C-alpha cells in the first residue's frame, strides 16, 4: 500500500492514525456487534459517542458557556442560505465581507432571504489582498456580519478577528477551523464543513451563541430551524453517524497532538517552510497573495513559465504528491496544508520543488 503526500483542498487528508483506528473498528465497534454505521443514533452507545465528540470539540476550542454545538448536514453551502433564514427576517439586512470565491457564494445564497449587503470586498485586487478594515461600510442595524476567515481557493486569510462592535460576527471556518486556537467568545456563530480539518464530507459543525438561537427568523420547516436541532441535540432526524464518529476520532487525535496550540505552531512552521521555498526560488515560483494576507492552510503558487505547469503536475504525481493543481478560478498550483498534512510532507514537497526548478530552470 502506498499513501501519497496528499495536498488536497477538500475532501482532504485525514490523520493516518484516525483511518487505521476506523479500519480496526469498521466491522465491530465498541462491543456492539456491528459497525458504528449500522447502529441506531438513538442507541446508548452512539449517544455516548456523540456526547464525547462534542465534549472533545468544546475542550479543544475552549468553547465558553452560553454556546450550543451542532452536528449538521448539508455542507457549508446549505448554511449559506440557512443562516440568513434563521438569524434574520425578510425585511432585515446583513453585512458581508467578501474576500474570495466562498464569500461571494455566501452573499449570493443569502440574497433570497434578506437584504445581503457587500460591506467590503477585495474583488478589485483579484482577491489577492484583504480590504482594509477602515474601508468597510458596515450598515447600522445589520442582523450580523458574515466573513470567511480563510478563503480556500484564493489562499487569503485574516490573522486577526475583525472588530464589528456588538453585531454578531458569523464566520465560515470551513478551511481553518481547529488549525490554531481561536477566541470563540468573539463570534456569534462559527460553522464549518468537515471535509478539511474535521473528517469526511457530509457533516457540518456549528458553534452558535445561545441568544441567536432565539431569533425568530421566519416561518420555516423545523428541519431548517437551528433551535429545533439544538433542542434535539442534533438528532432531530438521522444525523451523519459515520461523520460524527470520524470527527470524534479526529478530535481525540488532535488532543493527543497537544491540542490547538501545538497544531498552530506546526501549521505556522509548515506554511513558513513552503512560502520560504517559494520566495527563495529566485522567481521560479511565485506566491501572488499579499504577504500579510497569506493563508497557512491553502498556498496557491505559480510557476514563472505556465508552459511548465503540465510537467510540474505530472512529475509531482509520479513522485507521490497528490492534488497540487490549483483551482481553475486562479490557475497554477495549490498546496493545502491542513492538520493531517505532516511537516514531513511539506519538507518532501519543498525538496521536489527545488529539484524541479534545477532541472527546468
Ligand atoms: N466555504 C469554504 C471556505 C469552503 O472551502 C468550501 C468548500 N471547499 C465551502 C464553503 C463549501 O463547502 P461544501 O461543499 O461543504 O458546501
Automatic annotation (TrEMBL):
<comment type="subunit">
    <text>Homodimer.</text>
</comment>
<keyword id="KW-0718">Serine biosynthesis</keyword>
<keyword id="KW-0963">Cytoplasm</keyword>
<feature type="binding site">
    <location>
        <position position="172"/>
    </location>
    <ligand>
        <name>pyridoxal 5'-phosphate</name>
    </ligand>
</feature>
<dbReference type="InterPro" id="IPR015422">
    <property type="entry name" value="PyrdxlP-dep_Trfase_small"/>
</dbReference>
<dbReference type="InterPro" id="IPR000192">
    <property type="entry name" value="Aminotrans_V_dom"/>
</dbReference>
<feature type="domain" description="Aminotransferase class V">
    <location>
        <begin position="5"/>
        <end position="348"/>
    </location>
</feature>
<dbReference type="InterPro" id="IPR022278">
    <property type="entry name" value="Pser_aminoTfrase"/>
</dbReference>
<keyword id="KW-0664">Pyridoxine biosynthesis</keyword>
<dbReference type="Pfam" id="PF00266">
    <property type="entry name" value="Aminotran_5"/>
</dbReference>
<feature type="binding site">
    <location>
        <position position="152"/>
    </location>
    <ligand>
        <name>pyridoxal 5'-phosphate</name>
    </ligand>
</feature>
<protein>
    <recommendedName>
        <fullName>Phosphoserine aminotransferase</fullName>
        <ecNumber>2.6.1.52</ecNumber>
    </recommendedName>
</protein>
<feature type="binding site">
    <location>
        <position position="42"/>
    </location>
    <ligand>
        <name>L-glutamate</name>
    </ligand>
</feature>
<comment type="function">
    <text>Catalyzes the reversible conversion of 3-phosphohydroxypyruvate to phosphoserine and of 3-hydroxy-2-oxo-4-phosphonooxybutanoate to phosphohydroxythreonine.</text>
</comment>
<dbReference type="InterPro" id="IPR015424">
    <property type="entry name" value="PyrdxlP-dep_Trfase"/>
</dbReference>
<feature type="binding site">
    <location>
        <position position="195"/>
    </location>
    <ligand>
        <name>pyridoxal 5'-phosphate</name>
    </ligand>
</feature>
<comment type="pathway">
    <text>Cofactor biosynthesis; pyridoxine 5'-phosphate biosynthesis; pyridoxine 5'-phosphate from D-erythrose 4-phosphate: step 3/5.</text>
</comment>
<feature type="modified residue" description="N6-(pyridoxal phosphate)lysine">
    <location>
        <position position="196"/>
    </location>
</feature>
<feature type="binding site">
    <location>
        <position position="102"/>
    </location>
    <ligand>
        <name>pyridoxal 5'-phosphate</name>
    </ligand>
</feature>
<comment type="pathway">
    <text>Amino-acid biosynthesis; L-serine biosynthesis; L-serine from 3-phospho-D-glycerate: step 2/3.</text>
</comment>
<keyword id="KW-0032">Aminotransferase</keyword>
<feature type="binding site">
    <location>
        <begin position="237"/>
        <end position="238"/>
    </location>
    <ligand>
        <name>pyridoxal 5'-phosphate</name>
    </ligand>
</feature>
<keyword id="KW-0028">Amino-acid biosynthesis</keyword>
<dbReference type="GO" id="GO:0004648">
    <property type="term" value="F:O-phospho-L-serine:2-oxoglutarate aminotransferase activity"/>
</dbReference>
<feature type="binding site">
    <location>
        <begin position="76"/>
        <end position="77"/>
    </location>
    <ligand>
        <name>pyridoxal 5'-phosphate</name>
    </ligand>
</feature>
<comment type="similarity">
    <text>Belongs to the class-V pyridoxal-phosphate-dependent aminotransferase family. SerC subfamily.</text>
</comment>
<keyword id="KW-0663">Pyridoxal phosphate</keyword>
<keyword id="KW-0808">Transferase</keyword>
<dbReference type="InterPro" id="IPR015421">
    <property type="entry name" value="PyrdxlP-dep_Trfase_major"/>
</dbReference>
